[in-house]
């Protein structure tokens, strides 16, 4: 969304050509109105109250200077160009003055009087230049004042106070001048506009002198009055600048109950929220960096674990194919069993990676149905016990009551979770060891434990074993650190929980708790 354009100021905002065009139209319009009025009253130049009066042109020049956009920088050749351009525009105005006063109203003017009038024209042009320089100084002062109040809120508030005081002073001056006019018995014929501009110039000079004397007092008074509010806003600006460069702990001091205090409170609330968001983002960044590091380690471990079985398989196949006529049948079957173990290890890694990729692509939807734990344990014993004895010489036993209440679970995921734990137990249990499937019944849940007589897990590592990509430092280190994290994710997704206990050198016990059906 584009930002709205700032509103264009009325004063000090037009080009030199635009301002001079406006000046010509205004001055020409005033002189045209005066000619129409005075010709309608059949006035001649000798009886004209505007004879020798150049106040209209002076006011038109003032209008031009207050409408021209000052150059940047202010004191440059551009300012001189504007002064000379304004002086040049005063000449057509005085030409209108001559035409209206002496050519249209008094066509029979003598040559001597005409010479006097041309001398008066030259004198008026010189006075015009003096007015121009004087008004240019006033315009530059106003421009400097505007730049001050545009750059500082303090000067803006001072400006507002000074404008109010100027307005009050101007009103008082009007009544004062009117009282002088009444005491002097002066009258103004506004139909003929006689004396109007004289009154306007007199009033402007009077107000200017009053303001020149009172302005310093006005500014000091406004400065003192606005200082407390500006100090609070300045403190808030300093705090926002510190927040912008990264000091998120800074807060603005809250004082009072006005709008500034509400702004300070809102800023502090916003800063609290930003600080919390930054802290959360930093935590997430650290977590993502940790995951990326763990993933790199995972890829390194998986590539190593895949290369090793593949190298063994290739070695056995090349050896058996090369020595096929001389190899004994018993030795051939032994090689086939070894290759089967390596293939099973490859399948484990592939299954873990496949499950991980599915979990990361989209959330797993669990089909929670009543599940027969007794039948599930029997199925696991039939499929895993013979293989455990044949490949690892590890005995598997089951210990469970005859009557087991049903649980709410996704039967396929529950079976896969138990197989993951059994594979871990087989990896870390030496030949001659035992793996037991134990079912315990509690009032609100049913626990299925896989207990082994393996090497165990150190206490400081036990709390991390459910984390993704974490691998305990054991003599039989293997796997990719995925299986147990998936087990926890699946079981908690079914509304259950997991637990682990281990004694280093004696074995480990992993338990899955599932909600019991009534």
From TrEMBL:
Top-level class of the enzyme under EC nomenclature: transferase
Keywords: Kinase, Membrane, Phosphoprotein, Transferase, Transmembrane, Transmembrane helix, Two-component regulatory system
Pfam families linked to this entry: HAMP, HATPase_c, HisKA
Catalytic reaction list: ATP + protein L-histidine = ADP + protein N-phospho-L-histidine
Span of domain HAMP: 227-279
Keyword Ribosomal protein recorded: no
Protein name, UniProt field: histidine kinase
